[in-house]
Amino acid sequence: MARSINFNTTDMSTHKLIITTPGMNLLSQLVGRVQLQDKGYAFRPTREPRHIVADFAVTGTSLANLDVNLDAIKRLLTLIVPKKLIFDSLPLRYYDAVLESFVGEYRTGTLFQGTLAFVCPDPLGYKTTEDDHDHDISASPITVNEAVAGTGYVTPVYTLTAKNTLTDATIKVENLTTDEELQWIGDLAIDGTLVIDVARWLVSKEAVADMATVTGKFPRLKPNVTNQIKVTGLWVSATGNLNILYRDAFL
Known about the structure:
Elements: E1 5-7, E2 10-11, E3 17-19, E4 33-35, E5 40-42, E6 50-59, H1 63-77, E7 83-87, E8 93-108, E9 111-120, E10 125-127, E11 131-137, E12 142-148, E13 157-161, E14 166-175, E15 180-188, E16 193-197, E17 202-205, E18 208-209, E19 215-216, E20 225-232, E21 240-246, E22 249-250
């Protein structure tokens, strides 16, 4: 069955490109292994890059129109940084991909067939929509629940908003499910925010990096379970807020 792809927000079928690979497997994973003469040993995957290879066809109303389509496709696909790649056979998931090769040949004056190869330095797939959840912080400490789907560990952004004036406060965010806790010490004004960006390993206060007092581990979210997130130090007498923003990840 012919399929279309969307790359960097462009539907490539607009330029008459269709994917013709039947039953293409987007869910494969490379597993590290050592092969000896009589036996092989597999070991824990080290997140090797994902390679996606697909046959394609491009059509045109004439040879000149076919070349116009091919030029547009190559221009749109040939980028030096990863962009979102979505296959219509898996429409709710994207991969951060870079074009590795684009090879093929003219079959007729109106048909070009070939093979596309993409490499994804980050091998995980991601949900096309974000999960964005608020939790009231009405005690210290307090534990809130965050149910996460997917099959890969998630690197969320935690945003803590104070509703008290906090002076020399020790704020801790711990995922009891993964046993990962991060601690920050400092001051926050009323409605002041502290942002913990796990993917970037960055803590910011009022949008300015504030890493001097940070200790511990950046708390990820475990997939396919309800994570228990313990927050300490944000509440004094008025309810604060914890926002957790992330995309489900897939192996």
